[in-house]
UniProtKB/TrEMBL annotation:
This is Glycosyl hydrolases family 43. Residues 1-35 form the signal peptide. Keywords: Glycosidase, Hydrolase, Signal. One of its GO terms (molecular function) is hydrolase activity, hydrolyzing O-glycosyl compounds. Transmembrane segments: none annotated. Pathway: Glycan metabolism; L-arabinan degradation. InterPro entries: aBig_2, GH43_arabinanases, Glyco_hydro_43, Glyco_hydro_beta-prop_sf. Residues 73-154 form the Atrophied bacterial Ig domain. Residues 41-68 are annotated as: Disordered. Belongs to the glycosyl hydrolase 43 family. One of its GO terms (biological process) is carbohydrate metabolic process.
Length: 478
């Protein structure tokens, strides 16, 4: 989401490798012989060399071609990135195309560890890290060059039981610092009683885009030792206009990553939505084992091609794209479109069935009695466009002792200790998050939890089960 129209044009890079700093890489670039400059060509992309890496020229004629094509393949090779090459913990993105329309192919000297298409099989827990050499061959016409990357693949972490929870959230547009990321820690395995971390101040603050973030979502990698936090790019506090931010809002999500939940990377401002989208709201993710990638989903209003100023009335649909690394994304697709506005989907899985929870964004009325409440659906396929209805009007009650007056931003998670699921629903304009629970996802029956003490003013966010060590680290360092 965003407050003002974006002025920069969308570079069609959802499925292209990002041209970011290569400082962390240990690599060798093998270039063809020096080529003559091409009139009017763009300046070449330069690389800061990592310690111990070298750039060398191959013998003359190595590429089979010299001149403008040779320079283009060299530039394309220099622009290739393997993110976190010195700390590989999951599948990696190996692009098959690059700058100037080049084609890229890959070879691995240890295909059982890293395949030529980027699937990673980490050493077992307790083993030594694996060193892998990847070679990219970049071609354009008869010209070609090669570039080598040295990878370090970390062994798998020890699997430990979950003995607590981390709660990430924002606190609302009514406060100057409310649209930033806050953390709270559970009191042991008690999912209903919490202590604010960092003295109740933001843990992460946006410096990009709208310089406000809402709806923070944390996902743990399937291997267990990498975390990604993604959030909405939006700041409503001040002069924000809800209609404007859905017509000319941000097409980006904000991304941070961590290996310990305490130390977080620099913020990334990543474009995911198409040109005809007016906004990107409440991004979340789920790892799809069938494709070895994360499915990232969000709500966007989509406008017709003949409405470039986004002036017509339309509605929010749920969109999705896939990624291995939260740098490079596939082209977005529509995931849920019931013909009226829906936002804030979240997904859990139990016994092979995916359960999706979404806010019905329609105004509550006799024609839409479940408007402004949560809908539950199920499917055997995560990316299916045909989920089956389980329940609607979730959270609706006759008063504060039986439910909520309206709800959005559901976060759903399993209890660490009992056969129970929790769903926190954000009663926007009211109490903020209110907890519900069930012992049967299939039933669609959720009851208001009793005796709870949540952080102060929590709004749309995530609850993540954590180990005893992770919980203690959070409490000690924040």
């Amino acid at each position: 989401m965003a407050k003002n129209p974006l002025t920069s044009r969308y570079r069609h890079a959802l499925s292209r490798v990002a041209l970011t700093s290569l400082l962390a890489l240990s690599s060798t670039l093998i270039t063809p012989a020096a080529a003559s400059a091409e009139a009017g060509a763009a300046a070449p992309v330069h690389q800061r060399q990592a310690p111990g890496s070298t750039v060398v020229n191959a013998p003359p004629g190595h590429s089979g071609h010299s001149g403008p094509l040779a320079r283009k393949v060299t530039e394309a090779a220099e622009a290739l990135v393997v993110h976190h090459a010195d700390d590989v913990r999951g599948n990696i993105t190996l692009p098959t195309s690059g700058l100037h329309g080049t084609q890229v192919s890959w070879k691995s000297n240890k295909e059982k560890v890293v395949t030529p298409t980027g699937e990673v099989n980490r050493p077992e827990h307790g083993a030594e890290p694996a060193s892998v050499k990847l070679t990219a061959t970049v071609r354009l016409g008869r010209a070609k060059t090669k570039r080598r990357f040295d990878l370090t693949v970390r062994p798998l972490p020890e699997q430990k039981p979950k003995e607590g929870y981390l709660f990430s959230y924002f606190t609302g547009e009514g406060y100057s610092n409310g649209e930033q990321v806050y953390f709270a820690a559970s009191q042991g395995n008690d999912a209903l009683h919490w202590d604010e971390l960092n003295g109740g101040e933001p843990v992460l603050t946006s410096t990009k885009g709208e310089q406000g973030v809402r709806d923070p979502f944390i996902i743990r990698s399937p291997q267990g030792d990498k975390f990604y936090l993604i959030a909405t790019d939006l700041k409503i506090h001040g002069d924000g206009n809800w209609d404007e931010v859905q017509r000319h809002g941000s097409k980006h999500i904000e991304v941070w990553e961590s290996t310990d939940l305490v130390h977080w990377s620099e913020q990334r401002h990543v474009r995911v939505a198409p040109d005809n989208a007016g906004n990107v709201w409440a991004p979340e993710a789920y790892y799809d084992e069938s494709i070895g990638a994360y499915v990232v989903f969000w709500a966007s209003k989509l406008y017709a091609a003949d409405d470039p100023e986004h002036e017509a009335d339309t509605y929010n649909r749920m969109m999705y794209a896939t990624t291995r690394d939260f740098h490079t994304f596939s082209e977005p697709k529509v995931w849920k479109d019931p013909g009226h506005s829906v936002i804030d989907s979240t997904v859990v899985q139990e016994d092979g069935t995916y359960y999706r929870f979404t806010k019905d964004e329609r105004s509550n009325s006799p024609d839409a009695p479940c408007g402004k409440y949560i809908v539950e659906e199920k499917s055997q396929q995560l990316r299916s466009q045909n989920y089956e209805l389980v329940a609607e009007c979730i959270g609706k009650g006759e008063g504060p002792d039986s439910g909520i007056s309206r709800g959005e931003g559901p976060t759903v998670f399993a209890s660490n200790t009992t056969d129970k699921w929790y769903m926190f629903i954000d009663e926007f304009g009211g109490r903020g998050y209110v907890p519900f629970e069930t012992t049967d996802l299939e039933s669609g029956e959720w009851r208001l939890a009793e005796n709870y003490d949540l952080p102060d003013r929590p709004r749309h966010g995530t609850v993540l089960p954590v180990t005893k060590e992770e919980l203690q680290r959070l409490r000690t360092n924040m």
